[in-house]
Structures are given as structure tokens and as C-alpha cells.
Write a structure and sequence with these properties.
- The complex is a heterodimer.
- Chain A is α+β, with helices and mostly antiparallel strands.
- Chain A is about 50% helix and about 15% strand.
- Chain A has 5 domains: about 5-70, no CATH class; about 80-140 and about 370-510, no CATH class; about 150-355, no CATH class; about 510-550 and about 745-885, no CATH class; about 560-745, no CATH class.
- In chain A, strand 7 (about 260) and strand 8 form a beta hairpin.
- The longest helix of chain A is centred in the first third of the chain and has 37 residues, at about 35-70.
- By secondary structure, chain B is mainly α.
- The chains are: A alpha+beta, B mainly alpha.
- The interface of A and B includes residues 42 and 77 of A.
């Protein structure tokens, strides 16, 4: 930085001539500081600056100067508001509004570009605000929300990365209750209670938590009937929500009545108000935790073990004014003491504030709906980028056509307006336009809301996006913010206008001085638009490849029916009678959808065991899905449950254990140990995708079970699928009257397994659409403006003999090269983003093709060329005489 | 403002102003404080305290002459007012009164 001349007099040593405090920091200080204190402060900072310059060098001195300027920003140093200026603003408001209205109406094209762009972009902002407000209001109804913490667990084994779980062990809860003096209350809960509730003839499937009697002391779930202190005390007590009680008992008073689950009778001890939507704990009923302890032997023999961390949830309530930190030490002591007794694994418990249960980092075994703050930040960031783009348009267009308005600003200044007043006027105008845009964007928001919620059932479950006073206040605040942001640069520009110059000769105004800035803005806008559209197209191609991926087996026309506790063989018999059903198989799970389950397998070396994914199937499963056997054959024995001796594995298993030098033929007949049983390998399957294509293929085994009890896989071969479905439904009805049939076609399920990607694509695609719209609007405005201002130039060229096409080229050359720059930046950026960030996480994916990389950009650039071309052609075709005559 | 009671740091600053006589301006006060206490006195903190002392009317200030140092900016010199002197004397008396009642042996070991 070169020192300005006016400072030279007080620089003694020539080598320090270049060292100056940063200009922006000086300006900032001058801006915020009370004029009474300013000189003194500046002097002190200068003195320190000189001192640091000697001691620490110019770089550090500048840094310290900046920091000090920021640090001096305190209540007593801030410039007191100038009441006179504010008062003048107030009385001038009417005049500002009037001129704003006139200018809006006079330039209908520019006004509509601005309002349209702002409202379209702001509608996304509104959506994100409503989304965030909903997420943040989770568990707000809990009166003790600030004092409730959840106990979470980190599970670490030597071979795998640590796993963070929202659940913990019952023992952790009990130890905290015993050992920690400063805890007011501890709730111990367990998930997984589910079954059909029988009351007389009524049968209702219910899911519930086991919860102990502290539940109602800690959480705010008011009881309509029953005593909260004792409702969950005794074993076999159940508390129903209002809705459940009505389903089971209708109008009758349920208190004291009996509900039967399976063979056990439970007494209704309370009726709770229905759970609010924004609660991370959602239940239809609560069963006393004492029941779980009474049934321990049946449901989970390890219930009280420190290692049983998968299904239990513990919440602690701290006394008022108690700090969490003070508890950590005790928790650490419990962790060390308990982990000392086990080998090779550690379970570490920690506390998490209640408010982070819904909107917090992802934990396994989460209870209720969760959303990661990162997703919210990304969505917010995208919305911000789009809004910023619309603000660019406003800024760009306002400055570009500032000729007329600057005369107005000049006149106002001559009449006596100060810089601040002119700034105020233009800021008012932009805020006004933003508020006007808010009205439109609100309408768009209502449309978008239904679309957004329709994206995914989980989203509907998570948020409702209803309006509240809070959201409306945020909406207005956002509009005002957007107005201020968009209007800042134009306002600064107009407030600097030199009245004498402007009034004397408007052409002296240096409108074109900011051409570079405008070019940069256009490039930024188009770069972002192209990145979004290319990402959408590339992502879509990848997504399609997941759906049509060759999984190594056939899924076509296979209907998977979850048995929901019914006998597989009974249903299979019923379905076999339907003519449209060509084959029926049974399996414990449906592969390739993302869910996994496995057990440990051993080969010759008893010390070497590995987790192998598992599916229990009957003899029809492999042929029906057309799994390819590299060697061997399908299960030949049909043992009863628990007595099987045959196993079919994939090639990865041979590789993992190096069975028979990985030779499938020689591997047949080899023995492996699973669940303590020796089993013979009777078949080796070609590797197939047990998990989704995001994950590499791992060792998999198939074991035989005549009735695995999970799913019925039904191959439908019928010209009339709807009729066959109806028959299947009818067959289901004869067996199960309580649960509805949940049959789904395999291909649909695969599509569902990747719906996270389709949702993401829709969101990014929509953002891309908006970004392109806004960028195109802005470009259009610029083209209109440029051609208008260059009309005379064009006419003269034409008179001198230029052809239409050469004129169009001359006019659009500049803008087209900007688009080329944008494409040159965005395409490699998107490619690198996918290549280095997204795709490495996906095990099986096609390479990024040149076609999909270019397709989006071509469309956008074609659109831009069309916009530029139509306008420039119009200008080029206009009659030069008409344009030159008027002057 | 919280009455005329002096905080510990306020008292130190006030004393320093008195000690510097006619040369008491912010940077000099900082340096002097650093010299006496051995701790670094932050300019921002000293400024805030000076501002508060002036509000309490314990000090008054005037602008000095412009010189070529400090980027041509004038210094603000501080001077202890009568009220300031009273406050200082009072706080000294309070301390001395308490010191007097401390039995000598209580502090012997710690010094």
C-alpha cells in the first residue's frame, strides 16, 4: 500500500514510509467512534502502531491495530445517534415513498426483474426459516428442558471406528442415580415394546417405551387421568395416550381396566395427553420399567449389563444452577470403573443437552426424528447464495441505470440533503421493494411448502412448517435485511454523487467506472448457476445408475411381504393358490436395501473370526432371485429349525478366510463354524450386492430355514398385476385381520432405499432452477440496459455500413466471454467436487461422462445467448435515422 | 454509574494520573501502570476506566497541543479533580485503618 501524500510529513525514516495502519480499520474507527473521543483514540492507536512497528515489524503492527480498532468497539465509544438526521428521515419518508413509487412505475421492466428475482429467491429463504424454526422448537414444551440431559454412549472396539449411540445401558442410569449426588432425577427407559393390545374384541397394534416412575417427574407429559407419581411404579402398569385410550376403550374410562399383550395382562394406570408433534420422544403408550425388569429373562437376559447399550435411554435432570461440567468427572469415574472389567471394548457415557436430541449430531439408535445441523447449514447456505444472487441483480441494475436517479440525488443535495439523507432514501427504497417482494414470495412459499413436504415422508414427520408469530417476524426481518443488503451499494453510489457535476452534465457521471464490478457479479452468478445445474445433472445420472444397477440377482416383479408375526408357510399356502403368483420364497430380510445383519464366522483358525452378513432363506429363494452359483448347489437337506448343517457363502468369504486357496470348487465340503455350529459349504455364490451400491461387497452367507419369519418373496407373473394384488390382499386378510398388508415390489423398494439421493437432487435441482432464473433475469436486465445506452453507437455503426450480424456480435461479445469464463470455472469445480468429495464414498458408480457434465451448461448458455441475441438483434434492426434524429 | 466507590483498577489508574502530574495521558498511564504492577495494562481497558472516572467526575481532561508525533493527533491529558483527591485519600484511610488493626504476627510469615 502506498502511503498517501498527506501523511508523508510525519514519516521520519524513509523505510517506514510504506508502513501505515490499514486504511479500512482507520475508516471503521472514524465511522463508529463518537467524535468527542475520536482524535484521542486515533492518536493512541497511532502511537502504539509506531511502537509495534519498531518492535514487531509492519505485519504484526497492522494486525494489532486492526484488533485494537475492533476491541474499542464498546458502548461508550459508539457514536450517539444523530437525532436531527433521524427526524429529517422521518419527515422525508413521505417524499421517499413517493419518488420510489414513481421510479418503480417508470421502469416497469427493471422493477419487475428486481421484484421477481427477490421474491423467488426469498421464498426459499422463507422455507429455510420455517424449517429451522420448527427444528429449534423441538422439546420446547418441556418445562425443565434446560436442565434435562440425555446420557449417550460411545462404543469402541479395536478394529472398528468408534460408534456414537443415543442409547446407553440401564446400568449407566442406575450408577448415576447411586453415585452422583448432584442429580435431581434419573429416568431410565427402553425402546422396543410392541405388540397387539387386546381389550375384549378390540385389537390395536401399539408401540411403546418402557419407562420408570421418574418419567413424569422429569418430562412434561401431563396426565389427564391417573396419578403421575405412581402410574409407572408397579410392574404390568401401562399409561395410554388419549388417542390410544380412545381406540381401545372408546368413551369408557380406561383407568384400572386391563389390556392384554400376548399372554400378559397390563393394568391401565393413567391416560396422558397426546404427545405434541415437536417432541423427540413419541409414544402411543408407556409401560412401567418394572415390567421390563420382571420379564428380564424373556426379553433380554443382559438387561442390567454395562454392555447392553442398544435399546435403553437414560435422561438426567440436574438441579437448578448446576453445571454439567461438574458431572463429567463423576461420569468419567464410572466409565473407568466399569470398563476396567471388560476386555477389548470400551463403553463411554457422556451427557447431551435435551435440545440437541432432535437437532444435533447424528447418533446411532436415535430415538424420534433427528436432523443434523450440517444439513440445515447447507440448505441455509444454498438459500443465502440464491438470495445474494438476486441482491446482485438489484445492485447491478440500480447502478447501471443510475443516470436518471443520480440527477434526483443531485437535486436533493442542492436543496440541502446530506449524504446520510440520500443514503437513507435509497435504502428505504430498496427495503420497500424487498417488502413488496416478500408479499409475492409468501405466496410462493405456500406453494413450495407443500412441494417440500411431499419430498419425503420423514420430512413430514419431522416438521410441519406452520406459520407462527415468530416465523412471521423472522420473515419480515429477512426481507428488511435483504433490502438493506441489496440497497447498500446503490445507496453508497448515489450518496457520493457530486450535485454540481450531475446537474450540469449527466454524462460526466462515471457510471461505467464500475463495469469491472458488474462483470464480476455476472460471472459469479453464472458460475454458481452452472455449478448447481451440472451437479444436478451429474447427480441424476449417478442416481439412475444406482436404480438400474446389476445387483447380481433378479428383482423384477418380486413382491416382498413383511410377515408381521404371521406364519410364513400358512400365508405361502394361501398365495400359492393365486394364479398370478408363479413362485414363493421366504427370507429373513430383503437384501440390497441398506439394512444388514450378521454373525461371526470362523474357519480353521479358532482365533480368527470375522463378521459375515447373513440371510436366512428357504430352498426357493436362490433360484427365484436367480443368484448365480459359481460352484455347488442349492440347499439339499430340509432340516427343522436349529438343526441345519449346510451353508452357502459368497466368493468374499473364501477370500476373507482363504478357504481352499479361494478356489470355489475345492471350497465345497469345507467346514466353517457359525454360532458354535460346524457347517458344510455346499455352494459358492458369485458376489452380489447384499448392501446398497454405496458399500463395497463384503462376505455374505446364506443359511437355511424352512420358515425364517421375516418376509415372503412372491414372484408375480401375471398380465393383470392389479387383480393379482387384490387377490393377495384378500388372502392376507383371511390370515391377519389386524395389520394391513405392506407388500412392496422389490424395484420400488430399491428406489426407496436411494430416496435420500432423489430428495437431495430435487432440492439442488430446484435451487439450480432458481439460480438460473435469477441469473438470466439479471443478464436480461443488463443486456437491455447496454443496448439502450449504446443505441446511438449502434446507429452510427449501421450508417457506416455494419451488418446486423456483425452488430449482434459486437454487442454480445463481451457478455458471451463472461459466460465462457463462468463455464471454465464451474465445470472443473463441479467435476472435482464429484470426483474428490462425493464419489469416493460410493463404492460402485459409473464414471462422470462428458455429456452430462456439459449438458446443463449448454442449456443455460443457450438460454443466455437467446436472451442476448434477441435484444441485440432488436437494437441492430432498429432504424438508425430515428435514433440519431432525437438529440 | 455505581456511586463514587473506587474499584481496585480505578484506584490504580487514579493514583497513576496523580503521579504523572501534567504528563498523564492514556499511553503514558498504560506504561506507568505496567512499570508499577508488572502486568501489561491493555489500552482498551485503561480507556474504559478513564472514561468512567471522568463520568464520575474524579478526573477532568483537556486536549493538548498538536504535534508531529501520533499522526498529528492531539493527546488528552487527565488531571485528578478535588473529588478524585478526596476519594483517593478516603480509600487510603480505610486501608490504613484496617491495616492498623491487623496484629503484626498474622502477616509475618507470609512476607
Amino acid at each position: 500500500m502506498k502511503a498517501p501524500a498527506r501523511h508523508n510529513d510525519r514519516r521520519k525514516a524513509p523505510d517506514r514510509e510504506t508502513a501505515e495502519p490499514p486504511r479500512w480499520a482507520q475508516r471503521l474507527l472514524r465511522w463508529y467512534c463518537d467524535p468527542d473521543l475520536l482524535e484521542d483514540l486515533q492518536g493512541d492507536l497511532n502511537e502504539f502502531f509506531d511502537r509495534h512497528l519498531h518492535e514487531k515489524g509492519p505485519r504484526r503492527a497492522r494486525q494489532i491495530y486492526c484488533l485494537d480498532v475492533l476491541k474499542f468497539f464498546r458502548l461508550y465509544t459508539i457514536r450517539k445517534p444523530d437525532w436531527l438526521t433521524l427526524f429529517i428521515h422521518w419527515i422525508m419518508l413521505g417524499s421517499y415513498l413517493k419518488t420510489s413509487r414513481r421510479s418503480l412505475l417508470r421502469n416497469k421492466l427493471f422493477s419487475s426483474i428486481n421484484i421477481l428475482g427477490l421474491s423467488v429467491s426469498m421464498s426459499v429463504g422463507l422455507l429455510i426459516i420455517a424449517f429451522t424454526v420448527d427444528l429449534r422448537s423441538y422439546d420446547d414444551f418441556q418445562e425443565k428442558k434446560d436442565r434435562i440431559y440425555r446420557v449417550i454412549t460411545t462404543y469402541q472396539t479395536p478394529e472398528q471406528p468408534p460408534m456414537d449411540l443415543a442409547s446407553t445401558s440401564v446400568k449407566a442410569g442406575k450408577r448415576i442415580r447411586e453415585l452422583v449426588a448432584g442429580v435431581e432425577d434419573v429416568v431410565i427407559m427402553r425402546s422396543g415394546f410392541g405388540g397387539d393390545a387386546h381389550v375384549g374384541e378390540t385389537v390395536v397394534p401399539l408401540t411403546a417405551y418402557w419407562a420408570d416412575d421418574a418419567f413424569f417427574r422429569v418430562f412434561t407429559f401431563p396426565l389427564l387421568k391417573g396419578n403421575p407419581a405412581t402410574a409407572l411404579k408397579e410392574p404390568y402398569s401401562v399409561v395410554l395416550t388419549e388417542k390410544t385410550a380412545e381406540k381401545l376403550f372408546g368413551e369408557a374410562d380406561p383407568l384400572g381396566k386391563v389390556v392384554r399383550f400376548d399372554t400378559l395382562n397390563y393394568t391401565v394406570t393413567g391416560v396422558a395427553k397426546d404427545v405434541p408433534k415437536f417432541s423427540h420422544l413419541r409414544f402411543e403408550a408407556l409401560v412401567s420399567f418394572a415390567t421390563a425388569e420382571a420379564l428380564q429373562a424373556k426379553i433380554d437376559p443382559n438387561l442390567q449389563s454395562w454392555e447392553d447399550i442398544w435399546q435403553n435411554y437414560v435422561y438426567v435432570l440436574l438441579p437448578e444452577g448446576r453445571d454439567v461440567q461438574s458431572l463429567q468427572a463423576t461420569l468419567a469415574r464410572i466409565n473407568t470403573a466399569e470398563n476396567a472389567a471388560i476386555k477389548n471394548r470400551t463403553f463411554t457415557v457422556a451427557l447431551q443437552p435435551l435440545k440437541e436430541a432432535a437437532l444435533g449430531r447424528r447418533l446411532s439408535n436415535a430415538i424420534g426424528p433427528t436432523m443434523s445441523p450440517l444439513v440445515v447449514w447447507i440448505l441455509g447456505g444454498l438459500a443465502f447464495v440464491v438470495i445474494l444472487s438476486a441482491c446482485f441483480n438489484y445492485t447491478n441494475l440500480s447502478i447501471a441505470r443510475s443516470l436518471r436517479r443520480s440527477r434526483e440525488a443531485g437535486i436533493r443535495k442542492v436543496i440541502g440533503a446530506l449524504r446520510g439523507h440520500v443514503m437513507g432514501q435509497f435504502m428505504t427504497e430498496s427495503v420497500l421493494i424487498a417488502l413488496l417482494a416478500l408479499v409475492f414470495s409468501f405466496g410462493l412459499f405456500l406453494l413450495l411448502r407443500t412441494q417440500f413436504l411431499a419430498l419425503d415422508a420423514d420430512l413430514r414427520n419431522l416438521v410441519s412448517l406452520d406459520l407462527s408469530v415468530q416465523t412471521v417476524v423472522y420473515f419480515i426481518a429477512m426481507a428488511v435485511g435483504v433490502g438493506l443488503l441489496a440497497g447498500l451499494l446503490p445507496a453508497l453510489f448515489f450518496s457520493r454523487v457530486n450535485p454540481i457535476l450531475v446537474i450540469k452534465d449527466v454524462s460526466a457521471l462515471k457510471v461505467f467506472r464500475r463495469v469491472t464490478m458488474r462483470k464480476v457479479l455476472i460471472v459469479v452468478q453464472y458460475t454458481l448457476s452452472l455449478i448447481f445445474i451440472t451437479a444436478t445433472v451429474v447427480g441424476y445420472v449417478q442416481y439412475r445408475s444406482f436404480l438400474s444397477f446389476n445387483l447380481g440377482f433378479q428383482t423384477e416383479n418380486i413382491l416382498n411381504i413383511p410377515l408381521r408375526g404371521n406364519k410364513g408357510n400358512v400365508l405361502a399356502k394361501e398365495l400359492a393358490a393365486i394364479p398370478g403368483v408363479s413362485a414363493i420364497a421366504q427370507s429373513s430380510m430383503v437384501t440390497s436395501l441398506g439394512s444388514v445383519g450378521g454373525t461371526m464366522m470362523k474357519y480353521n483358525n479358532p482365533a480368527d473370526s470375522a463378521l459375515v452378513w447373513l440371510n436366512l432363506v428357504d430352498e426357493h429363494y436362490l433360484p427365484m432371485h436367480k443368484h448365480k452359483l459359481v460352484a455347488g448347489k442349492n440347499f439339499s437337506l430340509r432340516p427343522r429349525n436349529g438343526e441345519e448343517s449346510e451353508i452357502i457363502v459368497n466368493e468374499q468369504v473364501l477370500k476373507r478366510f482363504n478357504i481352499a486357496q479361494r478356489n470355489p470348487r475345492k471350497a465345497l465340503g469345507q467346514l466353517v463354524t457359525v454360532d458354535g455350529k460346524k457347517m458344510t459349504i455346499v455352494g459358492v455364490l458369485k458376489d452380489f450386492h447384499y448392501e446398497t451400491v454405496l458399500h463395497p461387497i463384503k462376505p455374505v452367507m446364506f443359511r437355511y430355514s424352512a420358515e425364517p419369519g421375516g418376509y415372503l418373496n412372491v414372484k408375480v407373473a401375471s398380465p393383470n398385476i392389479a387383480a393379482t394384488m387384490e387377490q393377495i390382499e384378500a388372502a392376507w386378510q383371511t390370515i391377519d385381520k389386524v395389520h394391513p398388508l405392506e407388500a412392496k415390489f422389490y424395484d420400488d423398494q430399491i428406489e426407496e432405499a436411494y430416496r435420500m439421493f432423489s430428495g437431495m437432487l430435487k432440492v439442488i435441482g430446484f435451487i439450480a432452477f432458481l439460480a438460473i432464473c435469477i441469473a438470466s433475469l439479471g443478464l436480461f436486465g443488463m443486456v437491455v440496459f447496454t443496448t439502450e445506452t449504446k443505441l446511438k453507437e449502434i446507429s452510427i455503426r449501421k450508417v457506416l455500413g455494419a451488418s446486423d450480424s456483425s452488430l449482434v456480435l459486437a454487442l454480445s461479445k463481451g457478455l458471451l466471454s463472461l459466460l465462457a469464463v463462468a463455464a471454465l470455472i464451474s465445470l472443473p469445480a463441479t467435476y472435482l467436487f464429484f470426483d474428490k468429495v462425493v464419489l469416493p464414498d460410493i463404492a460402485y458408480h459409473p464414471p462422470i461422462g462428458l455429456a452430462e457434465l456439459l449438458a446443463g451448461s449448454l442449456i443455460v448458455i443457450l438460454l443466455a445467448v437467446l436472451l442476448i441475441g434477441s435484444q441485440t438483434l432488436r437494437a441492430a434492426r432498429s432504424n438508425p435515422v430515428k435514433n440519431l434524429k432525437t438529440d | 454509574m455505581k456511586g463514587t466507590n473506587l474499584g481496585e483498577f480505578e484506584e490504580l489508574v487514579l493514583l497513576t494520573i496523580a503521579a504523572l502530574v501534567s504528563e498523564a495521558y492514556s499511553v503514558a498511564i498504560c506504561d506507568e501502570l505496567e512499570k508499577y504492577t508488572g502486568r501489561s495494562a491493555k489500552l482498551g481497558v485503561v480507556h474504559a476506566v478513564l472514561n468512567r472516572l471522568e463520568k464520575k467526575e474524579l478526573v477532568k481532561s483537556r486536549m493538548g497541543e498538536a504535534t508531529s508525533a501520533r499522526g498529528g493527533k492531539r493527546k488528552r491529558y487527565y488531571e485528578v479533580t478535588h473529588a478524585g483527591k478526596v476519594a483517593l485519600t478516603r480509600s487510603k484511610e480505610v486501608r490504613e485503618a484496617i491495616w492498623r488493626v491487623i496484629p503484626g504476627f498474622n502477616l509475618e510469615g507470609s512476607l
